[in-house]
Structure formats: C-alpha cells, structure tokens
Write a structure and sequence with these properties.
mainly alpha, 2 strands, Farnesyl Diphosphate Synthase, globular, homodimer, two-stranded antiparallel ribbon
Amino acid sequence: MSAFDLTAYLNDRRQRVDDALATVLLPDDAEPPSVHRAMRYSVMAGGKRLRPILVIAGAEAVGGAAATVMEAACALELIHTYSLIHDDLPAMDDDDYRRGRLTNHKVFGEAVAILAGDALLTDAFRLIAENAARVAKNPALVRDVIVEVVEAASTRGMVGGQVVDIESEGKTVAAETLEYIHLHKTAALIRASLRVGAMLGGGRADQLAVIGEAGRSLGLAFQIVDDILDVEGTLAELGKSAGSDERKGKATYPAVHGIEASREEARRLIGLAKDELAAFGAGAVPLCALADYIFERRS
Amino acid sequence: MSAFDLTAYLNDRRQRVDDALATVLLPDDAEPPSVHRAMRYSVMAGGKRLRPILVIAGAEAVGGAAATVMEAACALELIHTYSLIHDDLPAMDDDDYRRGRLTNHKVFGEAVAILAGDALLTDAFRLIAENAARVAKNPALVRDVIVEVVEAASTRGMVGGQVVDIESEGKTVAAETLEYIHLHKTAALIRASLRVGAMLGGGRADQLAVIGEAGRSLGLAFQIVDDILDVEGTLAELGKSAGSDERKGKATYPAVHGIEASREEARRLIGLAKDELAAFGAGAVPLCALADYIFERRS
C-alpha cells in the first residue's frame, strides 16, 4: 500500500477530468457569449477537482472504471462551481478573490454570475442523466443517482448548510450548529460524489452504505482542515488571503474548538473513514491515500 | 368543440396542481426554516399555473392522464418560480412586486432568495426523475425527459434568453434579437412543458415533434401578449404596475413592432398552433381552448 503513488494518481485523474470538463462546456462564443465565458472562467479556474476524483475513486472502489463515470464526475464539479459562484456574490460572502483570481461577479457582473451559476446547476443534471442512462439497465438507477445528487445539493444538503452558514455569521454558534453547517454545506456533496461513483460503478447496497459513511467522515474532515488552513495557510498556498473566516465572523472549528482539538477531530474522522474503507480491500487504496491527503494538504 | 368548458378545466387542473405543489415542498418549519418559507412563499403565491397545466394537457393530447404527470407538472412550476425569484433580484430586473405581493428578496433578503431559487431548481430535477422512473420502461426515457427540461432551462433556453434580455436593456434591439429573447426566455419552457407531458403520457416521436412546434408558437404568442398587457393592463389585473417594461427599457414586441402588429402576430401564432394541434383530434380540445385563452387573457 505504501507503494501507491498518490501524486501520479491525482495528476492522471485530474487531467482526465479537466479534459472532460473542457468538452462538456459550450464554447466561449456560443450565444450568448457572456454567460458561456463566465461558466468556463470559473469551471476552468483549476482547483483540486476533489469531487470528480471522488466520483471516479468511488467507482473504482467497487470495481468500476473511470470512463464509466466521467459525465457524472464533471456534473459534480459543475455543481461545486455553481455553489462557489453564488457563495461569492455580494449578497452572500462578498468575496473578490477565489483560487487566486477575481471572483465571477467581479469579472462578469452580478447578473451574469447568478445566471452562470444557474446554468451550471442545470447542465449538471443533463450530464448525470446521460451518464446514468448509458450505464443503467433500469429506470430506477437513473432516478436514484439523480435523487442522490438532489438530496446533497438541496436544502437537505448544501443549500441548507449555506443558509445556516450565512445566518450564523457574526454570531457565537453552538458546536451542533457548526457540525450542521459543515455536514450540509460541504460533506453532503463529498459523500454524494463517492456514492454516485459507486452507484454508477455497479456497487451493491451494502457497499453504498459503507462508502456513504466514509464520505460523511471525509467530507467533515475536509471542511475542518479547510477551517484550519484559513487560520494557518498563506496567500500563496490558498489563492486567497488567510484569516478571511475570522474577519467575516464565520462559524469554524478552530473558533469553536481551538486549533489543536480541530486537528485531532479531523485526524479521528480520517481514521474512521479509512477503517470503513478497509471493507473494499485493494479497491480502496486510492481512496485511503486520498483520505490522508485531505488531512495533510496545505491548500 | 364549443361545448368545452375551459374555465372548469382550468379550475380543476389548477387545483390539482396547487394540491400537489403543497405536498412536494418541505414544511415551513423544516430546517433551515427561512429558505423553506421563502420557497413556499413564491411557489404558493398563486399564478396561472400555465406550465404545469400545459404538462397535463400535453399528456392528455396523446391519451395520457393527469395523474401520470403530476410530479413533472410541479417540477415545471418550480423551475418557472425559481426563474422569477432570480429575475426579480436587484442585480437583474430589480422588481419589488410580483403577483401583487412583495418579491422574494424584499421579504427574505437577497441571500435567501438566491438560495431559495437554487433549491427550487434542484428539487425540480428530483420530481422529474421520480415521475419519469415511475412511468418509463427504459432508462432512455428518463434521460430524454431530463435532457428536454435541461435544454429548455439552460443557456440554450431560458437562461440564454434572460442573459440577452438583461444585456439588451435600454438599447434599441433588432427584431431578430427580440425574437431570440422571447423564444428562449419564455417559449422554451412552455414548449418543454407540452413535450414533457406528451413524452410521459406515451406520445410517439411524430406527436412530440408536432406538439413541440405548437408549443413554440404558443410560447412566443404568450410572451407577445404579456408585452401587450404590460402596456394596456391595469395594476389590478396584472398584480404589478403596467408600463414597467417601458420604464426599464425592456425589449418588447410593442416597442419594436407597435401594438397592432404585435396583436396580429400573436393572433397568427395562436392560429398556427391550433392548426398544428388539429393532428391530435379530440385529445387537443383543451389545448386549443388554452391557445385561445393565451390570446384573450387580461392578466
């Protein structure tokens, strides 16, 4: 297991995701050009591609191939990108920079940014439907994959977390509220990425349950590490200024539990996820390495 | 045919749609409450329920029953409502009133309004997927219904129309640009409503083609009549002040072609749609009456 080359794995999967993303977006000169430029600007801004890579790794864990899930992998990245564009709006987090570049609305204006987000969310469901129909033998699987993504992105998931996040700004939040925000805003879509990959990869119900539990732990750990990096990271590492959570009065793990307890909790969750993933044997080697990476990353 | 009671038909179908909509939304006290109240506020604000009724009428035209398509009917209304919430935002049309009530962001704030729109769009795809999987014998139909809605709501449809609409404000627009805006912003979703109803109702490919053509004509006529009503209607009839298009410098048919030519074009399109719908015989009696209503309505 120590022989697994995570860097090579991430580079390869990220490249395949980037190539696929470039083809699923309409060209910049498609009518109307402004919104297509705005969509491509944010989607192709780089980033770790964590969610699409988790879709792929989820499929691989149950014996599926990356090629089986590429449209769904792209769809999860489109949904993530739409959420970033809308979160950055003046009415929400009011951020000027993202991944080291001006945010979407600073370049294209608020109206086009809102509509670009709407369009990315809309297009994501085409990709998921096309992928599921290509792989599925029955209509129920297509439905299940879409319902999985809807649950994770809706008020029961990501949007619900964002609402509570915004409504908690500048307030002292209880530990349970903080966990609600992180589980919904971040962990739900990370969990869904793994589950969708496993569903399309042919996973059984018991496998989906296990990978879902692991995804919840990984997703929560990911956001705790994000909170820690916002305190400890540098501008060069993060592509945005450190300390932005504190300036905005955001509910974070370090603010509620302190840095050391936050790091311990992230470590515990990563361990929990890896224990759960052990059920997949060799198929989960990439996922276990990804779990370590989520804890150790510097950006 | 003159014996068809359109008022009774509309009342019955509207009531069934309203009942179904009330059940597909989470209750106002679901966590987090603000966004669920915001979603319900706009969805249950009334309105003609034209798009869901067209889904039902599309199914009926090919011999399907209303009960076969109720989730999809609701989904089309959720998508329409999301588009109204986002269109009304300060960064877009900046409207304070809609259907005689304060707009969503005036009541719930911009952040929650944006997120309520996002959530309605997201939830719509669950309803469509569930409906299609319930009716479909193969995965391809589920995919086709979703792709149909995505096309109509994306930058190739509604969002594309909204982008050009906003970018044309205060400018003199060519007749072709005006037609682009109306076909994309309004007609695309109306056309998709009919086609989705016909697809789920068991329509054949040739029937889908015909009903799609009729939907395009009906949708364009609907928006032209909307433009005329904005000039001629009263506050009581419209639930918003008349003349708002002119104040905002909106591209409209009366502004480009004059009132009389606009009315003539709407009449021509309605005739065209009814000619196309004749192919469905008795099954299209409600749709033909709806076509007349779209022309004659006062709000």
